[in-house]
TrEMBL record:
Pfam (any one): Por_Secre_tail
UniProt source species: Hymenobacter daecheongensis DSM 21074
Keywords linked to the UniProt accession: Signal
Protein name as annotated: Por secretion system C-terminal sorting domain-containing protein
UniProt keyword Magnesium, yes or no: no
Secretion system C-terminal sorting domain segment(s): 423-487
Coiled coil: none
C-alpha cells in the first residue's frame, strides 16, 4: 500500500509539472502500441508499456514480456522486450533510462542502461552503462523532422563513439539499437514504423481486420491436421452476416452459421456418412480502442489478434502452453485471392523437463491462426477460408468456389426472396417495398446504411402489403432494407440509392 501511495504521489507530481516535462518520453505509459521496422524485411515489431511501479525516486514502467528464441526450434520467456525490461523516469533529474536486465549476478551481468537527457543543453555529456562499462552519451542536437508525416521536434544523442539514438518530443523513441546493443560495433537499428496509438487504431484495428456488410459470406473448409492419405472427415462451414453495428467505441457483427461434415472410413476412423448442423447465430464484437475481440463461438475466434510481436498469453493449465503473437508483416500476401495476411499467432508447448523452454506443437497440437485484411480469420487450426463474397463500395466481390457451400444456410435466402421485394432498384428518390403476405402486427422496416447505422425506421400496419421508402436527403450508395416481424428472424435485401 505504501508503494502504491508513493506511485500516486509521483503521478500527481508529474501532472503538475510544466507541459514541457510531459514530453520527450521514449514510450507512452498509457498502453499505446509503439511499432518499429528493420528487424527483418517488411517486419514490424510492436510493443508497449503495460505496468508501472515506484522504486525510490523513480517512476518505473515495465514493457510487455515476450518470447525469445533459445535455438532454431525452441523459445524461452524473457523479461526483456526489444528495448529492455523497463523505462525509468527520475522526476528530479528529468532523466529517462531504458534498462536491460541481464540477470541476477551482481558483476558482469550484461545489464544495459541507456540514459537519455532530452532537457539538458545541447553538447552536455553523461554516462550510460553497458555490461558494467560506462558509455559516454551526449545530446548532439535538437531539430525538426517529419515523424510518420507529422512535423515534430527531435533530439539526437550519440552513445559511445558512433552510435546515434533519436528521440521525438511527442512520438517517443524514433531509432535505437535492437536489444539495446549500445556497445556493439554494428548493431541492428530499429526505426519508428508509425506514430504510437491505441491498439485499436494501429495494426490491430478491428475495422481493418473485419469489414463486412449484411449478406456477405465466409466459407471455410476443415479437416484433421494430422492425417496421411484419406482423412477421417472433411467439412464445410458457412457464415453469413446478419447485422453490422458500429458505434463510437465498438463494432458488433452477428452471423448465421451452419456446417456440413462428410465422414470417411479409412483404417483408424470410426464414423461414416454425412451430418448437417442446425443453423446457429453467433455474435462477435470488438473495442475500437483496445482492438480486443469477444466471440460467442468456440471456433474461428479473433480473441488472440491483439497479441503484440512475440507477446504471449498463458493457456490452461498454466505453464503447459502459451499462445504467441508474431511480428506484423505489412506486405505479406499469402491468403485467398491475394488477401493480405496481417496477423499470425502460434501455440507453443512447454518442453518436457525444461522449465522455461517452449516449442511449436506437432500434429493435433499444431495450433495456429492467421488473420487477413477485411475478412477476419483466414486460417485457424483445422479451418481454412476457401470462399468469400463481400461487398466493397457497393459492389459484391467473390473469391473461391461456392459449390461445396451450396446446401448450407438455404432457408434464409429462400424466405428472404419470398417475403418481400423492392422496386425500382436502384432507386433515385423512393423505393416501394412489396410483401408477399400481409404484414403482421408490430412489423417494422428499417433502412441501414453501409456503416451499419439505422437511418430510417417505419412501422408497417397489420395487413398492409406495400410501403414507400423515401430516400430524399440520403447519400447515394448501398443500403440494407430490414423487415422485422415479431418472433421471426429479420429479413434483408440490398437497395442501391442513386441520384
Amino acid at each position: 500500500m505504501k508503494q502504491l501511495y508513493q506511485f500516486l504521489l509521483v503521478c500527481i507530481c508529474l501532472s503538475s509539472l510544466p507541459a514541457q516535462a510531459q514530453n520527450w518520453r521514449p514510450f507512452r505509459p498509457n498502453g499505446d502500441v509503439h511499432a518499429f521496422r528493420n528487424a527483418a524485411a517488411d517486419t514490424v515489431l510492436t510493443l508497449r508499456l503495460d505496468s508501472a511501479a515506484v522504486q525510490g525516486t523513480d517512476s518505473v514502467y515495465y514493457f510487455n514480456r515476450i518470447m525469445r528464441r533459445s535455438n532454431s526450434f525452441s523459445w524461452r520467456k524473457s523479461v526483456n522486450n526489444q528495448f529492455g525490461r523497463q523505462l525509468r523516469y527520475n522526476v528530479a533529474q528529468r532523466t529517462y533510462v531504458l534498462f536491460w536486465n541481464g540477470g541476477t549476478t551482481p558483476v558482469g551481468t550484461l545489464d544495459v542502461a541507456l540514459v537519455l537527457k532530452p532537457f539538458v543543453p545541447v553538447g552536455t555529456s553523461w554516462t550510460s552503462a553497458n555490461t558494467d562499462v560506462g558509455m559516454p552519451t551526449t545530446l548532439l542536437s535538437r531539430g525538426i523532422s517529419q515523424i510518420d508525416g507529422v512535423t515534430d521536434s527531435i533530439a539526437t544523442f550519440r552513445v559511445g563513439s558512433s552510435l546515434t539514438v533519436v528521440l521525438s518530443k511527442n512520438n517517443g523513441l524514433v531509432s535505437a539499437p535492437q536489444d539495446l546493443r549500445i556497445g556493439s560495433p554494428a548493431p541492428r537499428m530499429l526505426t519508428l514504423a508509425r506514430r504510437p496509438d491505441a491498439a485499436g487504431r494501429s495494426y490491430y484495428n478491428p475495422l481493418t481486420l473485419v469489414d463486412l456488410q449484411v449478406g456477405d459470406e465466409l466459407g471455410y473448409e476443415f479437416e484433421p491436421v494430422n492425417h496421411s492419405g484419406l482423412p477421417c472427415y472433411r467439412g464445410w462451414l458457412l457464415r453469413r452476416v446478419l447485422s453490422r453495428q458500429i458505434t463510437a467505441d465498438s463494432i458488433i457483427y452477428t452471423f448465421r452459421q451452419q456446417e456440413r461434415t462428410n465422414y470417411f472410413n479409412p483404417p483408424g476412423c470410426f464414423n461414416s456418412g454425412s451430418t448437417m448442423s442446425p443453423v446457429s447465430v453467433i455474435r462477435i464484437s470488438a473495442s475500437r480502442r483496445t482492438g480486443q475481440w469477444v466471440s460467442s463461438s468456440s471456433i474461428l475466434k479473433l480473441n488472440y489478434t491483439t497479441l503484440l510481436a512475440y507477446e504471449y498469453r498463458q493457456e490452461a493449465p498454466i505453464g503447459s502452453a502459451v499462445t504467441m503473437g508474431q511480428p506484423v508483416v505489412t506486405n505479406r500476401v499469402a491468403g485467398l485471392c491475394g488477401t493480405p495476411v496481417k496477423l499470425v499467432q502460434t501455440r507453443l508447448y512447454r518442453n518436457g523437463g525444461t522449465a522455461n523452454e517452449y516449442r511449436p506443437g506437432l500434429d493435433m497440437l499444431a495450433w495456429g491462426s492467421a488473420t487477413g485484411e477485411a475478412v477476419g480469420v483466414m486460417a485457424q487450426y483445422e479451418h481454412y477460408l476457401t470462399y468469400y463474397q463481400r461487398t466493397v463500395n457497393g459492389t459484391p466481390q467473390t473469391c473461391g468456389n461456392r459449390t461445396e457451400f451450396a446446401t448450407l444456410l438455404p432457408v434464409k435466402a429462400a424466405r428472404a426472396a419470398a417475403t418481400f421485394r423492392l422496386h425500382p432498384n436502384p432507386a433515385p428518390a423512393a423505393a416501394t417495398l412489396t410483401l408477399a403476405q400481409p404484414a403482421r402486427a408490430a412489423t417494422t422496416v428499417r433502412l441501414i446504411d453501409g456503416m451499419g447505422r439505422i437511418v430510417h425506421t417505419q412501422p408497417l400496419p397489420a395487413g398492409q402489403t406495400t410501403a414507400t421508402l423515401a430516400l430524399q436527403g440520403l447519400a447515394t450508395g448501398l443500403y440494407i432494407v430490414e423487415v422485422q416481424a415479431p418472433g421471426e428472424a429479420a429479413q434483408h435485401l440490398r437497395l442501391e440509392h442513386q441520384q
